[in-house]
Amino acid sequence: MKRLAALVLGAALVAGAWFALRNGDRPAAPAEPPKPSACKPVTFDGKRFTECIAVPGQHRISTKITGKNGVIYRGFAGLAEDVDAATVAFAVNGGMYDTGSEPIGYYAENGQRLYPLNTRDGGGNFYLKPNGVFFGEPEGGWRVMISDDFAAKIAERPTFGTQSGPMLLIGGKLNPQISPSGTSLKLRNAVGVDPQGRAHFVISDEPVSFGTLAALMRDHAKTSDALFLDGTVSALWDPASGRMDGRYPLGPLILVTHRSPD
User: Looking at the domain assignment, is residue 30 inside a domain?
Assistant: First the structure.
């Protein structure tokens, strides 16, 4: 009797599964495991940094400034409301801005130039010439270029772009305007692209000089051209680690997302 009961129960389970599949009830696909952080701690010259790397073919880069509600984000909290955090590799502050959080230099988003290139003279880090532009297409071809060269050589508008300054490295050499051992120490962040086309975003986790940040971009990240993004307000959002900096209002943002499978 026990054997017969087991056979009857087994047949019932098979029949139930068959009817469920026939009626379109497919087994749920297993949840995709969370992606590891694209960011890692780095110690350079005795100073603590976080380095986040965007890899062509694995990540997409875009610029963001205004939310779906038409209001400038001014930080990561608003951005997080408009995007799926599971798709986000990381985001950083992306260039200098005025008191209203609007870019003070070139800014392009989704192939549209929203703010023109700024080649004027003035005071502050942005005008510590030469300054530069970080730009490219979402899935690769990312570059850092001196602003004057960008104006002269880039005829086709990139999908994204943001201007900041000063350039930290130019052709592998320290910007002559920057001291290799300066005494001004602040939180700072920068971006550069290595020979493999990977974009390195580095943020200091303690106050550092321009010279130390430039040396890290050259000797550790192996970038020949590197652009300073900002100081003091430097911020990172790394969903995988739970980090979301929010010390100060921000302007333009650089968003790096995981590339969707084809």
Answer: no
Residue range 97-126: average pLDDT? 97
Residue found under tokens 């230099």: 105
Number of folded domains that form the chain: 1
Tell whether the model's pLDDT for residue 151 goes beyond 90.
yes
Judge contact between 165 and 130, C-beta under 8 A: yes
Distance between CA atoms of 56 and 36, rounded to whole angstroms? Answer: 17
Cα gap 167→194, rounded to integer Å = 15
> Is the previous residue joined to 41 through a cis bond, with omega within 30 degrees of 0?
no
| pLDDT over 70 at 27, yes or no | no
- Are 179 and 221 a contacting pair, CB within 8 Å? no
Residue 240 lies in a domain: yes
Instruction: Please give the structure tokens belonging to residue 218.
Output: 């050259």
pLDDT of residue 262: 59
Please state the length of the chain: 262
Whether residue 156 is contained in a domain is answered as yes
d(CA 18, CA 42): 55
User: Is residue 183 in some structural domain?
Assistant: yes
Q: What is the pTM of this model?
A: 0.87
Range of the domain at 207: 36-258
